[in-house]
């Protein structure tokens, strides 16, 4: 299916993949009720980092997720609640106590978060998480619980420290999507002792890493984004903006999460699908590609307006315009 995208520098291959991604996007039907088209939670948000979980959750909401949650520390929650009343903010995370102060352990903290999992479709883990030991131990337990429920997880930022230290936490879990930057990619590559692997083509590294992790989907970010599960590789070559401000990766994680939530709606048969059905695992790569395309187009549009002053919040403002430019008026179908 063709798209209505009018921007420059789209390859035929990208246009074709976007047509498949478009099949995952639910039309806006009167029969739908609140929550069916996506319930996403972003887990992160420490005392020092409140912007990242907000940008991720807002990208999810702006793209069309019905319900966007942030699970963070109380200090972060107080701040994030001032950013937008549209997000549901839960102060359930805890940082390690200082000095000899006795605080909760990871089992206690994670238990309250695990109670939320049946009400959610997708988790984003990592934005604003930081490297506090209690925060890391807590999300490690939550990742395992989500895996047991076969819930899709998007891992970014400091959550990738868990993968680096314990690759088995995600190895073989095909519902996991990792979005490392170049430094994080290199650390995981080294942790898996892949330094002697032979690479000839530009997609070899992402394919080798995805296979080493047992078929997880990896988005290798760069001048082009390479999306691979080790068997199928998609190349997202849409033009982005030239400013590399911090926080743009948070738009990516939130966008991927919404596409993954729509994947569930698609698999649940909430609307009639025309043409050949999409495979449930193929859709994980398509969701990651869709998130990449949205983010790159947001960056391009924001850079046209803001130039070198571009900030992460400018991408948030462009999410709907990027969606319409890439996929057309799906809402009218």
TrEMBL record:
Its EC number is 4.2.1.93. Residues 17-326 form the YjeF C-terminal domain. InterPro entries: Carbohydrate_kinase_pred_CS (IPR017953), CARKD (IPR000631), Ribokinase-like (IPR029056). Its cofactor is Mg(2+). It is found in: Cytoplasm. Catalyzes the dehydration of the S-form of NAD(P)HX at the expense of ATP, which is converted to ADP. Together with NAD(P)HX epimerase, which catalyzes the epimerization of the S- and R-forms, the enzyme allows the repair of both epimers of NAD(P)HX, a damaged form of NAD(P)H that is a result of enzymatic or heat-dependent hydration. This is ATP-dependent (S)-NAD(P)H-hydrate dehydratase. It comes from Epichloe bromicola.
